User: What shape does this take?
Amino acid sequence: MTAAKLVRGALFYLLVAVIVFISVFPFYYAIITSLKTGTALFGTDLWPKMASFTNYVLVFSSGSFPRNLLNSLFISATVVVLSLLLGITAAYALARVAFRGRKVILFAILSVSMFPQLAVLAGLFELIRATHLINTPFALIFSYMIFTLPFTVWVLTTFVRDLPIEIEEAAIVDGATPWNIIIKVFMPLMWPALVTTGLLAFIGAWNEFLFALTFTSNNDERTVPVAIALLGGASDFEIPWGQIMAASVIVTVPLVVLVLIFQRKIISGLTAGGVKG
Assistant: This one.
């Protein structure tokens, strides 16, 4: 191995180490801070001298954080189910059914996701207030679908286009209906794309803050991002930093676990259609 290859290899691993450090250190520091209490919270040591789970106990025992956690889980899971159900049926129609204006509809769906949340906030608030959905989970489910559904439809449409049409033709010859083709033929082949889009939709709904803050004013109906933001006290000295860090760790752990479980499916879904064989 030449010296040039050794240098390139060393630089590559150094770059990987820097990226991993930048990505992991904030989460690591949040864990360390969540294990501190009292004046130790303001120390700069990278390992607590005395680890304590008091902050985690306080987060679950005070306030409505457990209810907020369940709210986020229910809303995010519902958003994922609806996004995938509507996304896969729309993707089948846009990719396989020939009709006039198909490309226009597809680009219109994609363009919806390009608008920032603030641009649609006022109009969406009036719509939700007119339908009496304020302070209900359905207000957040409806609003989150605005940015999860376009992405889901676009990705799944691209994936369906890459599937061999011979599979669909064989199913039609056997008497399969369009719904049977979607459920029994396409879905088993689309698991990587479904897992990828579903997980990204879940992360987007789980972390969303602006709509959750605007459309909910009752503590029992809020989601965890808003609940964490409202943990602060009247002044900087009263802010429970330890509890905030503990709550942040609790909220982040499910996302990390999901990514670790489905990492192979995520990679397959992101690279599907990238290489033509």
The CA atoms of residues 88 and 260 lie 25 Å apart. The mean pLDDT is 83.
